[in-house]
């Protein structure tokens, strides 16, 4: 019985804290990836440059800084058109979905992760992101309903108080 209550409170706590399993990235990792890209641009190896840009894109969309996330989204959108391998497209779509998730555009994020799952239906990482997106949408909907219900209650209470005061 105690274990059941513990699980219940863990789920409720997770719901309101919005916990997800998507990792965050520190700014020092972003700086390191930027340095890698700068070094790779000095050389002539396009494959190495592409790998460094993908690592930087990953770091940016996983950053805690909104400006980094937006920069990562822009980089990924620019590079998506030049992608020729399905694996590379899948990875870029996933990272874009993470970026949009981090920036709060859950509808766009869900669309992109669903495209990833069309390419690779068994991809656990994309499935986990899709669940996090759906949980966030559900949580935001429940909070919105709660706010609306509270507003209606306050208005109704104000009207009742005004009518009560008028009768006296």
TrEMBL record:
It comes from the Eukaryota. Keywords: Membrane, Mitochondrion, Mitochondrion outer membrane, Peroxisome biogenesis, Transmembrane, Transmembrane helix. InterPro entries: Fis1 (IPR016543), Fis1_cytosol (IPR033745), Fis1_TPR_C (IPR028061), Fis1_TPR_N (IPR028058), TPR-like_helical_dom_sf (IPR011990). GO terms for cellular component: mitochondrial outer membrane; peroxisomal membrane. It holds the Pfam family Fis1_TPR_C. The keyword Membrane applies. The C-terminus is necessary for mitochondrial or peroxisomal targeting, while the N-terminus is necessary for mitochondrial or peroxisomal fission. Component of the peroxisomal and mitochondrial division machineries. Plays a role in promoting the fission of mitochondria and peroxisomes. This is Mitochondrial fission 1 protein. The chain crosses the membrane at residues 141-163. Belongs to the FIS1 family. It is found in: Mitochondrion outer membrane; Peroxisome membrane. Its main location: mitochondrion. It is a single-pass membrane protein. GO terms for biological process: autophagy of mitochondrion; mitochondrial fission; peroxisome fission. Signal peptide: none annotated.
